[in-house]
Every structure is written in structure tokens, then in C-alpha cells.
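Table S2 (text version). Query chain:
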Amino acid sequence: MNEIATAVAKTPTEPIPPLEAGDHLDQKTFHERYKAMPRNIRAELIEGVVYMPSPLKAPHGRSHSELGTWLTRYKAHTPGTDVLDNATAILDDSNEPQPDAALRVLPEYGGQTQENTDGYIVGAPELTAEVALSSAAIDLHAQRRVYEQTGVREYIVFILGEDRVVWFVRRGTGFVSLDPGSDGILRSEFFGGLWMDPAAMLREDTLRVEEVLQQGLASPEHKAFVEKLRRP
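Corresponding C-alpha cell output:
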């Protein structure tokens, strides 16, 4: 081995820098650094800026559990859909969020996401949801812009500090707030039969949340959506 080759061989591999909140990174650099972080660390890249949420409190955990149960029950009755819990979504060169929950249509049923060889979701899930307490400002502004610009069809934010649910739906190229029906029920415009009683969700009334969802699953809208998914 010549001297140059020996020198190259002995050059140590440079360590991967840790993520720091506020870093400005592209998606590929963020992803490499995120994978090198301890497994208990959560980070997101929003509009090229790194966000690292604070430890989660019990109210967030309870709402997250209710949200996941609601979406999973819908998936169980809707072949061709998939629920994700805290899964990274690679959206573009500046955005790699990790939504609290997401509901997507599987690609073989005509969905707009793919799962890459490393197991990460690439593309915008049809529906994303966030539980917001300390992160409300981010979730309602920067996060909303990202989901709107990258093709998410519907975006739900549970604002725990204000006891309200905001459900954005895509109309044309942008988001508008979904209004509840006269009965107070929110009904998805994309996922037929995905119905929610927001007041029951906020007070963690699991039985009432399930009752309203079952009504949605028995609706003509759900039947039509399932038939649509059978014809990708």
C-alpha cells in the first residue's frame, strides 16, 4: 500500500453532528442526522427548520390514544386504508414531519404515498392529525402550510389548551376549515364515513366517539368510498 493510500485508510470517519432545534437543513441531511440520534429523541423538519418537541404530558398522551383508536377502528372497516402512529413522512427537500397520526390510502388502492426500501413513508398521507398543546403555534401555521403545499387532503388539529378541534379540508389548491353539521358532527369530505363528535373526543368519551363513528360506517358515504377503493 503506498503512502497516500495508507493516509486515506487511517483517516477517521467524521462523526455525524447531532440535531439541534433551530438547525436549518435540507431533508437528506436532516434524515441522516435524525437516524443517528438516540431512539427516544423526536424531531421534525418543517420548512427547512428542525423542531424538537418537549416531552409529552398526560393530556397529550390521552388525546393521542383516543385519536389512534378512532382512526384504527375506521381502518378496520375500510379495506385499502392504513393508519400510522408517529411515523416519519418524507414530503420534499425541506420537509420531513412526524405527525401524531395519519390515515392514508394504500398505493395499490390508488393512494398518493409509497413506502421506500428503508420503511419510510414518501409523499403526503391523505389525512394527518396533530395533538397541539405547546406546539399549537407551529401546528396551526408552519405545519399547516407544509401539509397544504405538499398535497395532504385533510388535516386535523386537537388544540388542547383551547378545547377545540380544527379540521382542515382541501378545496381546490388550499385548505378551508370544515364546519360541523347541525348535530355538531364533523364529517370527512375525503374519507367517506369518517365521522367525529369533537366534543366527545375532547372530553375523552370513547363510547360516544365510537357511537358516532359507527353511524358514519353505516352511511351511504362509507359504502361508496369502499366501492371506490375497490376500483383503483
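Notes on Table S2: The CA atoms of residues 76 and 206 lie 17 Å apart. The chain has eight helices and 13 strands.
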